């Protein structure tokens, strides 16, 4: 019997709605654990996650049967609902409508993990928009500045 084997590694990043600082460092581990559970439910393991108060970066191994758009819809919807149910003034929590996703090779995993782990320090020097512009340039993606920010 034939077997299909794949490894779809993705660097995914997105911000909170309007880039509001709604993810305090004290809350981030719990949020990341919730998102990890959503990823496992979609058979797409979350390999690492990090970010700042206004955005997150994920390294995900996307399952071969899962469309990225469906994965992102489920993950953002379910995690947003979970955050709102936590209370503590988070009932207005939401994610930006879009996201940025880049495929990476296995050889890039170690460097990406370090990059994700270092987000808080990294963002003392560069803001989210400039970071995304740099990533878009690095991955050779053309964009329209008027259409990528909410």
Please describe what this structure looks like:
This protein has a 4-stranded antiparallel sheet with strand order 2-3-1-4, with helices on both faces. 41% of the residues lie in helices and 17% in strands. A hairpin with a 3-residue loop joins β2 and β3. The protein has one domain: Transposase IS200-like (Alpha-Beta Plaits), CATH 3.30.70. It is α+β, with helices and mostly antiparallel strands and 150 residues long. It is globular, with a radius of gyration of 15 Å. The chain contains 6 helices and 4 strands; from the N terminus they run βαββαβαααα. It starts with 7 loop residues before the first strand and ends with a helix. The model has no long low-confidence stretch (mean pLDDT 93).
Helix content: 40-55%
| Integer count of domains | 1
The counted number of beta strands is 4
The CATH architecture = 2-Layer Sandwich
The main pleated sheet reads as: 4 strands, antiparallel
Secondary-structure class: alpha+beta
- What is the CATH T-level topology? Alpha-Beta Plaits
CATH class value: Alpha Beta
How do you describe this structure in short?
With 150 residues, the chain is an alpha+beta fold. It has six helices and four strands, in the order βαββαβαααα.
Any chance you could write out the topology, listing elements then pairs?
Elements: E1 8-15, H1 28-41, E2 46-51, E3 55-62, H2 68-86, E4 100-103, H3 109-117, H4 119-122, H5 128-138, H6 145-148
Antiparallel strand pairs: 1-3, 1-4, 2-3
Helix pairs in contact: 1-2
């Amino acid at each position: 019997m034939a077997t299909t084997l794949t490894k779809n590694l993705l660097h995914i990043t997105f911000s909170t709605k309007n880039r509001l600082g709604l993810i305090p460092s004290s809350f981030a581990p719990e949020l990341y654990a919730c998102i990890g559970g959503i990823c496992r439910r979609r058979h797409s393991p979350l390999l690492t996650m990090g970010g700042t108060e206004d955005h997150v970066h994920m390294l995900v191994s996307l399952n071969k049967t899962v469309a990225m758009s469906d994965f992102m819809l489920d993950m953002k919807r379910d995690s947003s609902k979970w955050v709102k149910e936590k209370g503590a003034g988070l009932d207005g929590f939401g994610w930006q409508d879009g996201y940025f996703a880049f495929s990476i090779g296995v050889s890039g995993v170690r460097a990406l993990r370090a990059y994700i782990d270092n987000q808080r320090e990294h963002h003392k020097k560069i803001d989210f928009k400039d970071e995304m512009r740099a990533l878009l340039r690095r991955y050779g993606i053309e964009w329209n500045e008027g259409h990528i920010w909410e």
